[in-house]
């Protein structure tokens, strides 16, 4: 029998169950590289970017491209072709800095690049993916509308034929990277066309006449992220701008599953940062003549948060191994997002209570992460929608309407 490696004599406060033992040396190297890149690029600046509501997204994209992080889980066309677990570990480290930073990478790689990689023609892939992988071109993903979020089948953005061309008209809202994008993946309804085939996806260069993007300001969450409203005023695209083979909701929902997979890992990075801040504070802060960490109620909070974080990471790793081996079903992704985001936001909120009034200060990362996770809780599918996806898997009965 192979002798097991010696155990560490002391628990790692952030890995009490030795989850690292389940990772390969290569996976640990990927995690360390992404942590270093994210910290070096953003660590000293992220609090100010959040406070200012401004982030140098284009510059960051180029640096992330140099590190091979954009579309890192895709094959070919300049992409790194890394595993789902590698991508998940990267998402944790990016979101440990800020959810907005992980969103920049996720929307670029999983939504915009992912859609082109899965559904685009060879011409689309050759034209856009290499420059997007390098961070030289930015992409966005236009699905959500002002009046249609959880019900994309009811979208009002329309695409109609005009000879060999397509004419697109409509609006999209809450679009990450929208106002800095060079290319937009736009989903539009073609049902009204003779022989219309429902929802179709289009590759739209953002310098096309009739396209406009307006950055959304005054956000109280995801402030270190570019968010925009897109308007399409009779935008004319050539016939080959459409994704050739995918129709219906399969296209956008497949892309969302890819993004949700990164999110179910990433949110745990925000939770880890908050837990570590609370743990350190509890040791350093003295009340009633003893450290906060010496009170049973504080230890109970820390124990609960640590347990939920580690259980979430175990779930994420299990789903990552499944994705790398046999693939994931939509309800499995929903389990991950439903559990891990709700637990992550609870960890952030509880961490805030340990810091008391200091928990709302920008000198500490907790309130920033908690505010960000309020958005993560609802984007790429609200907790309620994922509960219904799981409910249908459990009962066979859809309850969305």
Would you write up a description of this structure?
By secondary structure, the chain is α+β, with helices and mostly antiparallel strands. It has 3 domains: 19-133, Acyl-CoA dehydrogenase/oxidase, N-terminal domain (Butyryl-Coa Dehydrogenase, subunit A, domain 1, Orthogonal Bundle); 140-241, Beta Barrel (Butyryl-CoA Dehydrogenase, subunit A, domain 2); 250-395, Up-down Bundle (Butyryl-CoA Dehydrogenase, subunit A, domain 3). The protein is 49% helix and 14% strand. The protein contains 11 helices and 9 strands. The chain has helices at residues 25-42, 46-52, 57-66, 84-97, 99-119, 122-133, 250-284, 296-325, 330-355, 366-376, 383-395; strands at residues 139-142, 158-162, 165-176, 183-189, 199-205, 211-215, 227-237, 286-287, 290-291. The strands form 3 sheets. Strands 2-3-7-6 form a 4-stranded antiparallel beta sheet, with helices on one face. Strands 1-4-5 form a 3-stranded mixed beta sheet, with helices on one face. Strands 8-9 form a two-stranded antiparallel sheet. Strand 8 and strand 9 form a beta hairpin. The longest helix is centred in the middle third of the chain and has 35 residues, at 250-284. The relative contact order is 0.12.
């Amino acid at each position: 029998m192979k002798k097991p490696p010696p155990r560490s004599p002391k628990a790692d406060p952030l890995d009490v169950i030795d989850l690292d033992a389940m990772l390969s040396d290569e996976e640990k190297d990927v995690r360390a590289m992404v942590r270093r890149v994210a910290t070096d690029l953003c660590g000293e600046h992220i609090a100010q970017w959040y406070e200012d509501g401004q982030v140098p997204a284009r510059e960051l994209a180029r640096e992330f491209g140099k590190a091979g992080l954009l579309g890192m889980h895709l094959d070919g066309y300049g992409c790194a072709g890394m595993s789902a677990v590698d991508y998940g570990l990267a998402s944790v480290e990016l979101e440990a800095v800020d959810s907005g930073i992980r969103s920049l990478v996720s929307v670029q790689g999983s939504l915009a690049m992912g859609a082109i990689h899965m559904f685009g023609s060879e011409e689309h892939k050759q034209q856009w993916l290499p420059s997007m992988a390098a961070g030289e071109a930015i992409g966005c993903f236009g699905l959500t509308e002002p009046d249609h979020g959880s019900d994309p089948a009811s979208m009002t953005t329309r695409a109609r034929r005009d000879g060999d061309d397509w004419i697109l008209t409509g609006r999209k809202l809450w679009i990450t990277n929208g106002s800095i994008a060079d290319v937009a993946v736009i989903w539009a309804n073609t049902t009204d066309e003779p022989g219309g085939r429902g929802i179709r996806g289009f590759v739209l260069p953002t310098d096309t006449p009739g396209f406009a993007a307006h950055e959304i300001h005054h956000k109280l969450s995801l402030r270190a992220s570019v968010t925009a409203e897109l308007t399409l005023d009779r935008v004319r695209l050539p016939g080959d701008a459409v994704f050739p083979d995918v129709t219906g909701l399969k296209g956008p929902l497949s892309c969302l599953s890819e993004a949700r997979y990164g999110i179910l890992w990433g949110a745990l990075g925000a939770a880890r940062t908050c837990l570590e801040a609370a743990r350190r504070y509890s040791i350093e802060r003295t009340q009633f003549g003893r450290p906060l960490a010496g009170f049973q109620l504080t230890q109970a909070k820390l124990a609960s948060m640590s347990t939920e974080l580690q259980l979430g990471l175990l779930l994420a790793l299990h789903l990552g191994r499944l994705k790398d081996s046999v693939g994931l079903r939509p309800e499995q992704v929903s389990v991950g997002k439903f559990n891990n985001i709700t637990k992550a936001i609870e960890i952030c909120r509880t961490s805030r209570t340990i810091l008391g009034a200091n928990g709302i200060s920008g000198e500490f990362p907790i309130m920033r992460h908690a505010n960000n996770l309020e958005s993560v809780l609802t984007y790429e599918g609200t907790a309620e929608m994922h509960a219904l996806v799981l409910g249908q898997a459990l009962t066979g009965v859809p309850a969305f309407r």
